[in-house]
Design brief:
It is a single chain. With 180 residues, the chain is mostly helical. The protein has helices at 5-8, 16-29, 32-63, 71-74, 81-90, 124-128, 132-139, 143-166, 173-176; strands spanning 110-111, 114-115. A hairpin with a 2-residue loop joins strand 1 and strand 2.
Amino acid sequence: MSLPSTFRSPWAVVADAHWRGFFQYLDAHLQAKAFAELRSLAHRALQAIEALDAFMSRYCAQTCSHCADVCCTALRVAYNVTDLLFLWGLHDALPLGQTRRHDGDPCRYLTAMGCALPRYLRPYVCTWFFCEAHMQLFSMEPPRFQRRILTVLQDMRQLRWAMYETVQPFPLAHDIKELP
C-alpha cells in the first residue's frame, strides 16, 4: 500500500488557532457513521499504544538520560494529519497544539523529566521510535516478545491507515492551514 504524503509527512507547523480549527472542522463536517468508525479505530490504536508503553518507558528510562543526541531535540517531530484524526477519535483531552510553535523551536512537551504527554497523546513516531540504544535492548529480548511487539506495530500502522481512509475525501494539509 502506498501512503499519501499527508499520511507520512508531519503536518506543517501552524499557529495553535489553526490547530483548534482542524478539530472544529472535523466536528462540523464528519458524518456520524464516519465518526463512529474513527472512534472505534482510535480506541483500538490506543490499546496498541498501551501495549507498547511499559517496555518503551523502560527502554527510555535506561537510555534517554545518558543520550548525547536526544531525539526529542534533534529530530523535527510533529503531529501529522493521522495523528490528529487519532486524537480527535479518542475525544479525550487534546494537547495544547503542535509540538513546536515555530520551526527551530524545541518540542514544547519536552521537560527535564522527559515528555510531559502520556505516550498515547504524543505524535505517532514518538510511540514507536527505536533509536540505536533501544534497538540494542530490543535485540536482547526473547524472539517471542520481539514478534509480539512487531505485530503490535504492524497493527498500529494498519489502524492508522484505516483512520485516514475513514475520513476520505479529506482536505489536504495545505487546505487545513487555511481553516479558521
